[in-house]
Specification:
By secondary structure, the protein is of the alpha+beta class. It is built from eleven helices and six strands.
């Protein structure tokens, strides 16, 4: 069965600590394709931290991290975003991919790969993942654990000018509730799609598949009664879930064999996904180009020739619209106040009928 490795770097940013909150001191290294990194990107934009924290973004297609070597590791790499002649293949030599949006060089260390950044650190790790939160002053990795990074992004920088300090996505009174929902959502959905996609036996795949769709059914029922995971309050738990849901129909259904149902077949989950996508700052963390290019071109064992499925964008009505997928998630979500209005309308109607019945009885 697929098992995710634990993060090695787990420090935090806090007042009076080794890594104090200062403007311009830190850089968030991400891939717009990676759901774990995109959690952090969403927090960065929602809290309006981009004037204070720099973003470095890798190319979506993995490449060999040791050229001309027997070391076959493939992973995240940087490219020159101004190189208009850039072309990539997958590591098997197939496909042809050029420049895409949101690319940067490594502005701190000047390295070509994420692996090289890890190898500069004192701690030994064999997982060269994103996100990475870097302290430019000490040139140390603060953390590479997304669940830690989102927590300190939520509060640690609140005193800096222009930061959306009023937005608290992890209030103390909901900590226990978040932990409760995160436990089954992580195992069943966030990591569940990966357990399906990287299963090495039919038994392991089916076990993960059943857990995934049982969890989605549970989520659909929960969202039929609650606006968010923790009731009526948006929390980090919602952002953690959203990054998986937004990738589901475009990637996981095909690539990870999660083909029981589409997210768009769950009315409440779809509305919920649309609502969160439309929250200011969240959309800026989503690039369907990065998402699809990464998954479909980075694992030759899954997709040797690196052909990227078109999805709904390939339908006749959408072929001339490069933003067709984005527009689908910008449609009315039908969550929140609209439900309250419908309920209020129903109650008013019921009250009117009851009053009419009383009047008729009096006349009789």
């Amino acid at each position: 069965a697929f098992k995710r490795k634990n993060a090695v770097f787990t420090s935090i940013v806090k007042e009076g600590g080794e890594f104090p909150p200062e403007s311009g001191r830190y850089v968030l290294y991400v891939s717009y394709a990676c759901p774990w990194a995109s959690r952090c990107l969403a927090l960065l934009h929602m809290k309006n931290l981009t004037p204070h924290i720099e973003i470095c973004s890798v190319y979506p297609t993995w490449r060999r991290t040791r050229e001309n070597s027997d070391d076959i590791h493939s992973g995240w790499a940087f490219v020159d975003p101004d190189d208009e002649k850039l072309t990539f293949t997958n590591t098997a030599g197939y496909g042809k991919y050029g420049l895409v949006e949101y690319l940067t060089k490594d502005t701190v260390f000047g390295k070509k790969t994420v692996r090289e950044i890890y190898e500069l650190q004192d701690e030994e790790t064999h997982t060269y993942s994103v996100p990475i939160f870097i302290d430019k002053k000490t040139r140390k990795i603060v953390s590479n654990e997304s669940s830690i990074i989102v927590e300190f992004l939520n509060t640690a920088f609140n005193k800096l000018p222009g930061v959306n300090a009023s937005l608290d996505l992890s209030p103390p009174y909901l900590k226990e509730k978040q932990e409760e929902v995160n436990s089954w959502i992580y195992h069943g959905i966030n990591n569940g799609v990966y357990k399906c996609g990287f299963a090495k036996s039919q038994e392991a795949y089916e076990e993960a598949f059943f857990e995934l769709y049982d969890s989605l059914d549970k989520l659909e029922d929960h969202l039929s009664k609650n606006r968010y995971l923790c009731g009526n309050k948006l929390t980090i738990a919602d952002i953690r879930l959203f990054v998986t849901l937004i990738r589901f129909d475009e990637v996981y259904v095909v690539y990870f064999k999660c083909n029981g149902k589409l997210i768009r077949e769950y009315p409440n989950i779809l509305g919920y996904t649309r609502e969160i996508y439309q929250i200011p700052g969240v959309k800026e963390s989503v690039s369907f180009t990065h998402i699809k290019n990464h998954y479909y071109t980075s694992h030759p064992t899954h997709n040797l020739y690196g052909v990227i499925p078109l999805g709904p964008r390939g339908l006749k009505a959408n072929r001339k619209d490069p933003k067709a997928i984005e527009k689908f998630y910008l449609k009315p979500h039908g969550r929140g106040c609209s439900k309250v209005k419908k309920l209020s309308g129903f109650l008013m109607l019921a009250a009117g009928i009851a009053a009419a019945i009383v009047m008729l009885k009096k006349r009789a």
